[in-house]
Amino acid sequence: MSIVFGLTASCVARRIIIASLAVMLVPARLHGQTAEKGADAAPRWELGAYLGISRHSPAGWYFGLVPDRSHLFVGLQLTANLYRTRRWALAYAPEVVPLLVVSNNPMTRSVPTRRGGRLRVESGRAPVAGFAISPIGLQAQLRIASRWRTYAGGAAGVVWFTREVPVVNSRAFNYTFEFGAGVRWSYRPSESLRFGFKLHHLSNANTAERNPGLDAAALVIGYERAFGSRR
């Protein structure tokens, strides 16, 4: 079973990566001629806030095994371009998520055992809140029109919850990684809206008794403001 699951997860991950690249490459081929020849280069850096929502966590087809969890992400992202032209940009893209909420998470209580010890058991379900930071992040952007850019990227970091996630005898501290893609619409010279999706995974890397992993496929909308020279 573990071999079959590993092969399935690998195939799905490969397809998702290919799809993310297609988001950038296909629009460029179809709409490349519409890009404004005199367009400025990408800004030196952008700071934005975003909201992400995911319902019914996928289970068994990717890395996570826990179903029926919804996610809410309230995040901040810095995009600092390392290389930029009028069409392309490659950026360092760390994230901070001041609020990450996971629904339907177990609560626990301690009960005595016959041998005089204590045993922690599930006592109900309720949402749990956490704080996450992803200091490792990269993002690529491609201008497809004078006001439109596509992007694709990924990030890795950690998250602290107020109690164990996603099951009893796991951990409140987990590692995370994510990747996603989407578009940015510059409705003003220094302001843009972001629309996209991301696949988010968290687990404790087998540092606890249980480590089933939890995934989210989130729709994302955000606001970003550009700073620095565009030339």
Written account of the structure:
The protein has one helix at residues 2-31, and strands at 45-54, 71-84, 88-92, 95-112, 118-143, 148-165, 171-188, 191-203, 214-227. It has 231 residues and is mainly β. The chain has one domain (2-227): Porin, CATH 2.40.160. Strands 1, 2, 3, 4, 5, 6, 7, 8 and 9 form a nine-stranded antiparallel sheet that branches. It starts with a helix and ends with a strand.
Keywords:
59% strand, Porin, 231 residues, mainly beta, 1 helix
In short:
The chain is mainly beta. It has one helix at residues 2-31; strands at 45-54, 71-84, 88-92, 95-112, 118-143, 148-165, 171-188, 191-203, 214-227. A hairpin with a 4-residue loop joins strand 5 (118-143) and strand 6.
How would you classify the helix and strand content by structural class? mainly beta
The SSE order reads: HEEEEEEEEE
Report, as a whole number of angstroms, the end-to-end distance. Answer: 54 Å
Q: Give the second-level CATH assignment, the architecture.
A: Beta Barrel
If you average the pLDDT, what whole number results?
84
Q: How many independent structural domains?
A: 1
Count of individual beta strands: 9
Helix content: 10-25%
